[in-house]
């Protein structure tokens, strides 16, 4: 509700390492590890207070009375209805500076036409002081054996989102 300006500026340093492929039994493995450091500045600005009105009460719901409104009240229509609930979105500005550190490890395991991608990512931020552990798993199956039709799926957990809500 209302005009909101948001911005984000990031400075990021990444290092990713790919290990040499090796075989173990009938499978081949290709491991990866990596780190990331991000410094982020996020800003939020709502220039004017905004309102949302809810729960209309019709004139017929008021016994022996009729609704009389002030002509400047946007939540009321004389002899028709008024809104019982109002939400206020206050004008305001905020800025958050955040440093996030993360590391991950992942393996690519290939067996015939099946490929598995188990992994784990750990991150920490200096604003909420959260350490997040995010397991990752994905798999793909080459149905035709030539790469033209591949079925892919997985289950992953991602931690992200705006910190401006908390600010």
Describe the structure.
The protein is an all-beta fold. The chain is built from no helices and 10 strands. Helices cover 0% and strands 65% of the residues. The radius of gyration is 27 Å and the shape is elongated.
User: Over the alpha carbons, how many angstroms does the gyration radius reach?
Assistant: 27 Å
Please state the structural category: mainly beta
Name the average pLDDT: 89
Tell me about the largest β-sheet. 7 strands, antiparallel
Helix content: under 10%
Number of strands: 10
Order of helices and strands: EEEEEEEEEE
**Shape call:** elongated
State the distance separating the first and last CA atoms.
19 Å
What's the number of helices?
0
As a percent range, the share of strand residues is over 45%
Q: Uncertain segments of ≥5 residues (pLDDT<50)?
A: none
Summarize the structure.
With 167 residues, the protein is mostly beta strands. The chain has strands at residues 4-18, 22-24, 27-46, 50-58, 76-77, 81-89, 92-111, 114-125, 131-142, 150-156.
Produce the secondary structure layout:
Layout lengths: L3 E15 L3 E3 L2 E20 L3 E9 L17 E2 L3 E9 L2 E20 L2 E12 L5 E12 L7 E7 L11
């Amino acid at each position: 509700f209302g005009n909101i300006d948001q911005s984000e500026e990031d400075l990021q340093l990444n290092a990713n390492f790919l290990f040499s492929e090796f075989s173990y039994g009938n499978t081949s493995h290709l491991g990866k590890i990596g780190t990331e450091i991000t410094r982020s500045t996020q800003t939020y600005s709502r220039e004017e207070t905004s309102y949302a009105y809810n729960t209309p009460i019709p004139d017929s719901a008021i016994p022996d009375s009729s609704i009389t409104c002030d002509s400047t009240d946007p939540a009321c229509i004389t002899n028709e209805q008024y809104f019982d609930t109002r939400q206020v979105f206050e004008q305001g500005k905020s800025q958050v500076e955040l440093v996030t550190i993360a590391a991950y490890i992942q393996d690519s395991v290939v067996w015939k036409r099946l490929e598995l991608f188990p992994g784990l990512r750990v991150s920490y931020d200096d604003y909420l002081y959260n350490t997040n552990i995010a397991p990752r798993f994905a798999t793909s199956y080459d149905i035709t054996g030539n790469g033209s039709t591949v079925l892919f799926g997985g289950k992953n957990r991602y931690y992200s989102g705006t910190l401006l809500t908390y600010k």
